[in-house]
UniProtKB/TrEMBL annotation:
It comes from the Bacteria. Pfam families: Cupin_2. GO terms for cellular component: cytosol. Gene3D superfamilies: Jelly Rolls. Keywords: DNA-binding. GO terms for molecular function: DNA binding; DNA-binding transcription factor activity. It comes from Klebsiella michiganensis. Residues 60-127 form the Cupin type-2 domain. This is Transcriptional regulator.
């Protein structure tokens, strides 16, 4: 038994314990449970319910004045979003779009794109992505 434990890298208690059931995906996700995936002054809080098979991602994005996603991003799928507060410049395929609160966008994320807050105020966006890339 000791040799088996060594091969499988288990302790005696782990060997005889019942396998853990995966947690059920959450129905309600609290603000404290959002996962921060942003960087460089851009906050991106991913709404994730623990479902490993999810096909849709939703992100709360906050751009401080003068921040950007950096070089153009490219990944498979689609993205839609709505500007909740402030303004942002979306650049896609060499074309710049100035968006303000209340406007929405829908893009093919296979085309290189970036977001920049060139204003003096905060910009907040809610976006949805499919398939999930985060």
């Amino acid at each position: 038994l000791q040799k088996l434990l060594k091969v499988y890298g288990l302790s005696l208690s782990e060997f005889f314990s019942e396998p853990e059931k995966p947690a059920e995906p959450q129905v309600v996700i609290n603000q404290d449970d959002l996962i921060e995936i942003g960087s460089q002054g851009v906050s991106m809080k991913l709404v994730h319910n623990g479902n490993p098979n999810r096909t849709l991602a939703m992100i709360f994005e906050t751009y401080q004045p003068g921040t950007t996603t950096g070089e153009r991003i490219k990944h498979q799928g689609e993205e839609i979003g709505t500007i909740l507060e402030g303004e942002v410049v979306l650049t896609i395929n060499g074309q710049a779009y100035h968006l303000v609160a209340g406007q929405s966008y829908a893009i093919n994320t296979g085309i290189p794109h970036s977001f920049s807050n060139t204003s003096a105020g905060i910009c907040r966006i809610i976006s949805a992505h499919t398939p999930t890339t985060f």
